[in-house]
Specification:
355 residues; alpha/beta; 9-stranded mixed β-sheet; 6-stranded antiparallel β-sheet; 9 helices; 21% helix
């Protein structure tokens, strides 16, 4: 048996750092979703090419399959006041209520030191949140109190959970644009951002070119976007996220692979879902449950042939996944190119595709 030291990779977390000017962080989405820029990264020869996202179909071939994450972001931020009048904020993560009414939630609260069990936060005249208990890692268990269905109250009074690097208040535009056009199953507190570039017209173009489109679900949790604090990647643990790949989806994926087609993962969330449901032979099975799969180099991919993704935070698990797929040196060279060419970064920013 190999010792823990022998299992250590050759990379440290600091190896996944890069410099990014603040002005390249996109605070607003592109005027049109598929007008975003697309950096094409060729693993075989290391070439980099600047294109538009609307060109994506030209990079594929008939018989390939594009895999989308159809999770839906819900307005998970509840902003209110404590009885003292001081501002408080609750970020809902996932329901924990066995009654089926979804009134009890795992959450993150601010200010954490003040919102201890027993404290109440008034969100609106018809909605209050009661802190029930503390959770490991600093989270809280909260109960939503108000007339009617808890989800209806959340939809009515919740706010779009924009990432903290989008340093502005959320607005009506975010309700539409921080959501993919194919979002279906409610459950994410962050958008699967590679999918934000798709329009109905682009999806139609892919199908007209002979590509198949498959949907899987992975509900994105806040832990996916947290920087890796450990000195070495293998010491970090991802929080588990709920995912599902249906019998129909796994069947299409296996058909495409058997026929020699390529599997395009639209985003790191799709990549993690697929890699959680594929066996050593590259065959997919229907799956439903949770995954805490953390992909970092070296990693042998079995379920993904092409990766479309946005540009990610330094030292993040998402950047580590991309380097595992494209190679460490090539990925960081692509990022330096993107900075030099003034690409827009992060959730509302531009995209890259690794061929």
């Amino acid at each position: 048996m190999r010792t823990p030291e022998a299992r250590r990779g050759r990379y440290r977390t600091a190896d996944f750092d890069y410099d990014l000017p603040d002005e390249l962080i996109a605070l607003r989405p592109a005027a049109r979703r598929d007008s975003s820029r697309l950096l094409v990264v060729d693993r075989a020869g290391g070439a980099l090419e600047d294109r538009r996202f609307s060109d994506l179909g030209a990079l594929a071939r008939p018989g390939d399959v594009v895999v989308l994450n159809d999770t839906r972001v819900f307005p998970a931020r509840l902003v209110g006041r404590k009885p003292t009048g001081a501002r408080a904020e609750i970020l809902l993560l996932r329901p924990r209520d066995d009654s089926g009414h979804d009134a009890v939630w795992e959450a993150i609260v601010r200010p954490g030191g003040k919102l201890k069990p027993g404290r109440r936060v008034e969100i609106a005249e018809e909605l209050e949140a009661v802190v029930l208990d503390s959770l490991p890692g600093g989270g809280r268990l909260v109960r939503l109190e108000g007339p009617g269905d808890a989800w209806e109250l959340i939809e009515r009074h919740g706010r779009v959970p924009l990432p903290p690097y989008i340093d502005r208040p959320d607005d009506a535009e975010d309700r539409e644009r921080y959501q993919t056009v194919y979002a279906r199953h409610r459950g994410s507190v962050a958008a699967p951002t590679a999918g934000l570039h798709f329009t109905p017209e682009l999806l139609m173009d892919l199908e007209e070119r002979g590509l198949r489109v498959v949907r899987v679900t992975l509900h994105v949790g806040v832990g996916t976007f947290r920087p890796v604090a450990a000195d070495r990647p293998e010491e970090h643990r991802l929080e588990a996220e709920v995912f599902e790949i249906s019998e129909a989806a796994s069947g299409v994926l296996n058909e495409v692979r058997a026929a020699g087609g390529r599997i395009w993962a639209i985003g790191t969330t799709v990549c993690r879902a697929l890699e959680s449901a594929v066996d050593a032979r590259g065959c997919f099975e229907a799956a439903r449950g949770e995954t805490d799969l953390f992909i970092y180099p070296p990693y042998r991919f079995r379920g993904v042939d092409r990766l479309v993704t946005n540009f990610h935070l330094p030292r993040s698990s998402l950047l580590m996944l991309v380097t595992a797929f494209a190679g460490h040196e090539l990925t960081l060279r692509a990022y330096r190119h993107a900075v030099r060419e003034r690409y827009r970064f992060y959730s509302y920013g531009d995209a890259m595709v690794v061929l």
